[in-house]
Amino acid sequence: MKILCIILCLFLSSCSVMPYKLCSKVDQPTSLSEIKLTVHEEPLLMSSYHCHKLAWKLNPLIMIAAIGTIPACAEVTYSKKNRKVKECEVWVPRGDKYMLEHELRHCEGYKDSLF
Q: Which residues have a Cβ under 8 Å from the Cβ of 89 and sit 6 or more positions away?
């Protein structure tokens, strides 16, 4: 039973709704065709590895809050001059279309509603 609870916590910690609020660093959504976009579709362990590195760099508490399960992420670079997304690098598990769509929304300038 304890193992089942641990597994359930790990799965629930990685669930996230589709981002719909704009980040405070942009004025309007940025079209994906306007940015330098790099997408890495990798095995789950590799995408999770890159996302943990990114989370650690941004704020180590994110890793603790997510109980160490971050399967997909996007590193977004903003232009201060025109308040748009300039570059975006995405890591997602291979074949997971929902996570890819979620991360691409971050590339357009949207943020998760929990942050």
A: 37, 38, 39, 40, 74, 75
For the full predicted model, state whether its pTM sits above 0.85: no
What is the C-alpha separation between 7 and 92, in angstroms, rounded?
20
What is the DSSP-derived secondary structure letter of residue 23? P
Q: Are strands 84-93 and 36-42 parallel, antiparallel or unpaired?
A: parallel
Listed range (8-12, 23-27, 34-38, 76-80) with the worst mean pLDDT? 8-12
Is-contact 97 103, C-beta < 8 A?
Answer: no
Which candidate, 32, 19, 14, places its Cα nearest to that of 106?
A: 19
- DSSP E strands: which ranges in the chain? 21-22, 36-42, 73-79, 84-93, 110-111
CA–chain centroid gap for 28, Å, is 19
Q: Which amino acid is at 102?
A: H
Q: Considering its fold, how many domains does the chain have in total? A: 1
